[in-house]
């Protein structure tokens, strides 16, 4: 057991659970909401990062997975399956292990970051690679799940969306109000859908006044919602959002329209600049896909999107250690010196 109350227990009144629902938890949720002071000062707004990389498997997926696997156990499923670019596979494997279920994860060949693949493997999942992209992987997984008793735990599972709503609850609880805007990466589009559902549910229950504008950001090489059509061969350094046909695309666009928000794309160069900026100025290490929200915020702030004093939250969906290879690409070389204090001082201050 965890000494921290399970996410399901904390927000039970907003979730589709009963007394018969077992709670499969790893202590997810209650992730930090950290003020980004340097960026806030630069743009004249109160800007915060919701650091979802502090969940047990290092990404926001754990919020939905605790719900999906708990409901799978409740109905008597013996196995779970997902298609994944990485984070879903890590989370599904961990929560299935916790529940004593078999897990299978289907990944696009060569399109998964090493940190995420390692997690799926170490938790005992059967990892299956297909010759195709994420969208093809999801199609074949859905076909199998519909014809069998295996529980599909991708974000097309409504219990995943229900669990991910809790991110919005926590943002409101920590701020004491809803932000004016929420910036969030968009890949398969389940998370932006879930956050909007969460804000609406909290507002309807009288827990918070006002609703934020939902501002979704896709990578330019994988931006079907921005372009208005499927991207057959999505490409971006942000592997977690390298998706050309989002399963929750219709719901995401509805959330954006209803909230008066926007959907836009950011380039890989913008993503990597934001990724390095938040690490070097704020001390926060996120994976590249997470930095799409920050890149989008910067782009919009420089265009005059936000009024002075407004509150903006950027959701950082996964930890930087999920995709460690990116951190060292084009990084300055390690400085090598003789082992003397004088040489060390020169290296520290003259470099």
Q: Can you offer a commentary on this structure?
A:
The protein is of the alpha/beta class and 351 residues long. The protein contains 15 helices and 10 strands. The chain has helices spanning 7-10, 37-43, 61-75, 87-99, 114-122, 134-146, 158-164, 166-175, 190-204, 224-227, 249-259, 268-282, 291-302, 324-328, 341-350, and strands at residues 33-35, 46-51, 79-83, 102-108, 126-130, 151-152, 181-185, 213-219, 262-266, 311-316. The strands form 2 sheets. It has a 6-stranded mixed β-sheet, sandwiched between helices. A 4-stranded parallel β-sheet has the order 5-4-3-6. The radius of gyration is 20 Å and the shape is globular. The protein starts with 6 loop residues before the first helix and ends with a helix. The relative contact order is 0.15. The model has no long low-confidence stretch (mean pLDDT 94).
Number of strands: 10
> What is the SS-derived class?
alpha/beta
The helix fraction, in percent, is 40-55%
Q: What's the end-to-end separation, in Å?
A: 49 Å
Residue share in β-strands: 5-15%
The value of Rg in angstroms is 20 Å
Put simply, the count of helices is 15
Tell me the strand order in the biggest sheet: 1-2-10-7-8-9
Low-confidence stretches: none
Q: Order of helices and strands, N to C?
A: HEHEHEHEHEHEHHEHEHHEHHEHH
Chain oligomer state: single chain
Overall pLDDT level: 94
């Amino acid at each position: 057991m965890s000494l921290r109350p399970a996410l399901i227990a904390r927000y039970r009144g907003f979730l589709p659970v009963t007394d018969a629902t077992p709670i499969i938890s790893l202590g997810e949720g209650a992730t930090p909401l950290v003020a980004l002071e340097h960026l806030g000062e630069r743009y004249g707004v109160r800007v915060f990062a919701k650091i979802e990389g502090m969940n047990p498997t290092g990404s926001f997926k754990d919020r939905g997975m605790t719900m999906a696997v708990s409901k799978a156990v409740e109905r008597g499923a013996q196995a779970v399956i997902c298609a994944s670019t990485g984070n879903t596979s890590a989370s599904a494997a961990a929560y299935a292990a916790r529940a004593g279920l078999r897990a299978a994860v289907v990944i696009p060949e060569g399109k998964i970051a090493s940190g995420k693949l390692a997690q799926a493997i170490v938790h005992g999942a059967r990892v299956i690679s297909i010759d195709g992209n994420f969208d093809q992987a999801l199609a074949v997984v859905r076909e199998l799940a519909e014809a069998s008793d295996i529980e599909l735990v991708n974000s097309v599972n409504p219990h995943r969306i229900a669990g991910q709503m809790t991110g919005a609850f926590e943002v409101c609880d920590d701020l004491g109000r809803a932000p004016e805007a929420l910036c969030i990466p968009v890949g398969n589009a389940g998370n932006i859908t879930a956050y909007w559902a969460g804000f609406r549910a909290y507002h309807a229950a009288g827990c918070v006044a006002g609703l934020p504008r939902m501002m979704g950001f896709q990578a330019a090489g994988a931006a079907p919602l921005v372009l208005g059509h499927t991207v057959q061969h999505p490409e971006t350094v942000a592997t977690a959002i390298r998706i050309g046909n989002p399963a929750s695309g219709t719901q995401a666009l509805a959330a954006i329209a209803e909230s008066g928000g926007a959907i836009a794309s950011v380039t890989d160069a913008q993503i990597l600049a934001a990724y390095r900026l938040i690490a070097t100025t704020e001390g926060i290490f996120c994976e590249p896909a997470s930095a799409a929200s920050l890149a989008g915020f910067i782009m919009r702030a420089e265009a005059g999107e936000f009024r002075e004093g407004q509150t903006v939250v950027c959701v950082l969906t996964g930890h930087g250690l999920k995709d460690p290879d990116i951190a060292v690409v084009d990084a300055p070389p390690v400085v090598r010196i003789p082992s003397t204090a004088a040489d060390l001082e020169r290296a520290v201050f003259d470099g």
